[in-house]
Amino acid sequence: MQVEIKIDPACKEPKLIVLTDKMTEEINLLIKRISQEVPQVLSGFQNDMLKILDPSEIFRFYCASGKVFAADDKEEYTLRLRLYELEERLDKSQFVRISNSEIINLKKVKSFDLSFTGTICVSLLDGTVTYASRRYVNKIKQVLGI
Fold first, then answer.
1. Would you give the DSSP letter of residue 141?
2. DSSP state at residue 118
3. What are the tens digits of pLDDT across the range 106-131?
4. What spatial distance separates the first Cα and last Cα of the chain, rounded to whole Å?
5. Which of 42, 101, 121, 134 could form a disulfide with 113 if both were Cys (CB 3.0 to 4.6 A apart)?
6. Cα gap 132→120, rounded to integer Å
């Protein structure tokens, strides 16, 4: 795909033109990406206090007792989102779903232990150890490029 940018001081608002001979999956993905809304704020509750969360500081998001939690290096927060809604909002290059009940921050991973048959043991920088379910092993390997 070729990319061309023209700077015009008379232009008051950016305009994107896609010139192609036919619609392709690549073009559809590009349009979808460009037209996505600005990411919404991520907030969590702790003792009736609402805190704006920085996703890059979160180690993992997980479900327990029917609730969704976000854990950073010090605290845990209750979220009012479902895990699939979080997965849609989070940066796919930084976060990966490892099971039906957990999403981890790849930048907070200490190591992946692949010695377990059919699963992956994930050690996070805060000392938390968790496991990827078999269903997600191939997806995780693909993200890691192995």
1. H
2. T
3. 999 999 998 877 788 999 999 999 99
4. 27
5. 121
6. 5
